[in-house]
């Protein structure tokens, strides 16, 4: 492979990760607009669903973008609350790690249990299994891991 193709491939990957981080940040900000102050937890969080969908479609290659988007999102919450310090950075690190692990596990569960049928979603059983695996089982990860790490 020529140096130009390697650079183009690396540049495309970095652009993709940056776009994923920006999308996660935007969707996360929409979700956190429903949060009770200080604003770290929301009853509806569309960024989590976006993260799983991106992981499924990318084959898990975009996890750094999910982590970065979540980290910056949660640091911005601290900044907006005028509470940006080392502890809030550790909390943001824990939340970002939990969110990334959640998306990774949900993607793994769906692909291992549903196979490639998740792409068509023609059978009700595939839809229900995907929703239960990614939506219910996957969400336990972030709620458990994020607070433990931070």
Textual characterization of the structure:
The mean pLDDT is 83. The chain is 77% helix and 0% strand. The termini are far apart. The longest helix has 30 residues, at 3-32. It has five helices and no strands. It has one domain. It has 150 residues and is mainly alpha-helical. The protein has helices spanning 3-32, 46-58, 63-80, 86-114, 124-149.
Features:
single chain; 77% helix; mainly alpha; 150 residues
Brief overview, please?
With 150 residues, the chain is mainly alpha-helical. The protein has five helices and no strands.
The helix tally amounts to 5
What is the rounded distance between the termini? Answer: 42 Å
The average pLDDT value, as a whole number, equals 83
Q: Assign the structural class, choosing from mainly alpha, mainly beta, alpha/beta, alpha+beta, or little secondary structure.
A: mainly alpha
SS elements, strand count: 0
Largest sheet, strands/sense/barrel: none
What portion of residues belong to β-strands? under 5%
Helices and strands, in order, run as HHHHH
Radius of gyration: 16 Å
